[in-house]
Amino acid sequence: MTPEDLKYTAEHEWVRVGEGDVVRIGITDYAQGSLGDIVFVNLPEVGARVEAGQTMGEVESTKSVSDLYAPLTGTVVGRNDVLDGQPELINSDPYGEGWMVEISADAGGAGADALLDAVAYQELTEAG
Q1: Does 108 fall in a domain?
Q2: What would the pLDDT profile of 31-42 be if each residue is shown by its tens digit?
Q3: Which of 13, 39, 42, 125 is buried most deeply by CB count within 10 Å?
Q4: Total domain count for the chain?
């Protein structure tokens, strides 16, 4: 299941464009399935600056610890604090209640040109 209204990264994050320059970010269903049961997330705090392609947090599962990468450059303006106590929401609802952070993207910032549409992301996951 790859929602067509989202953009994606090769590192398995999804991006939902919201109002103005704010985007909501999470990890894809493919990523959460590969990780297994998620037991902990480490997310950036509101106000933190993130750079496209750079690590901005971690997702820990029963299998491994994986880095969470910023798909765009900007400032964190929202954080899903519910995940601190219920990280399993990422497994059960990765595109909804399991969202991770909201970023106010820099105008013309790095990263936007590297985002994939649903078809390209699906091809990536099927090939790998």
Answers
A1: yes
A2: 999 999 999 999
A3: 13
A4: 1
